[in-house]
Amino acid sequence: MALKNYTSKSKNAFDVIQKCLASHGAQKLMFDYNGQGEVIALSFAIELDGRLIGFKLPARIDQVEAVLKQERRWRNTQELKDQAYRTAWANIRDWITAQMALVDTRMAKMQEIFLPYMAGKNGKTLYESMEENRFLLPGDQNSR
After folding, report:
1. Which residue of 12, 16, 49, 123 shows the fewest CB atoms closer than 10 Å?
2. What is the pTM of this model?
3. How far apart are CA 53 and CA 114, in angstroms?
């Protein structure tokens, strides 16, 4: 399978993510948990122009599980769920560290990278809000 991190055994993804974001100015890191005590999203804030802007990175573990399930190599459902969890967070870890390389080389700004994950007061990300509105930009509402 060509899926990145599909055999990940890493248990330090959260440490790497937290240190990477904090070292790049992120503040107020917070983890969202499901009923089983698993982290399902990471939220953090970055100060921009004197105010804190919130961002939310969802793991979408169910989608990873669906992709892994197609491989049929898992002995049982729990093994599949555990691997999906590790794979999802390992991919987020790798994505964040790669994006911070762009920030470090001034190829991109933090807000540019995380723009789709900017969270509104309703808890939805900009991407989720745009998706609900069929990706119409503000002012394009009459085009429906």
Report:
1. 49
2. 0.86
3. 11
